[in-house]
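Board notes (copied after class):
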Amino acid sequence: MIKIGVIGALGKMGREVVKAVLNADDTQLVMAVDILGEGTDIGTKTVGKECNVFIETNLENALKTKKPDIVIDFTQPSTIYEHTLTYIKNHVKSVIGTTGLKDKEIEEIKKLSKENNTGCLIAPNFSTGAVLLMMFAKQAAKYFNNAEIIELHHNQKKDAPSGTAIKTAQLMAESNPDFTLGNCKETELLEGARGAKSEANIHIHSVRMPGYIASEEVIFGASGQILKLAHHTMERSCYMAGILLAVRYLNDNNEFIYGLDNIMQ
């Protein structure tokens, strides 16, 4: 059995992760950490019955006493970098689903992961459908010189653009260096009207609206044609297959991975 700790266990994603870990045949929940609910049996908050795993608030102490094989973190952009350094320092493998890490932070985590021989998998999105969209977008990018990305999330998401949109643009840029071929010189009458400009001059537009969970659309254009790739998340349960895939991969491998696409080849 793979011993799992869930960080941010009382959050919307954390609760789904707890349920997935409790229901899987090859994982055992041994640790639950959150800033709220100290001492509460996490099972009563997620599956409606006790599981004898009690919420703790001190992350480092929980790592040392519960000794999980792998932790799964869905917390806050403001804390995820320090959390990840803590996992590496304690030689605990980690699956990171919290977005908002800066490029230089990801590079530092990659370096420390290798130096400490402690696996870490960071993914902007754990929905297998969303990851397939990224992979298809990279393939389509070989054949189009114009493309933009629209990402839509609930209005409680704190970072923009989404990690998924950034990762999609990075993958597309591997296939094509510039997606503004033939565009005229532009003047924004309102700052930000054309969105953020990412790798390969790909414009990313972020929408925040109650009612959405997570959606992404990649629009490719060429003379006489438009290609749209889209993925829509209806329930957070759709992320669980990808999270468990990451857990099982890390259990058998000890390396740094950025993006679920790297283990879905």
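Comment from the instructor: The mean pLDDT is 96. The CA atoms of residues 35 and 57 lie 5 Å apart.
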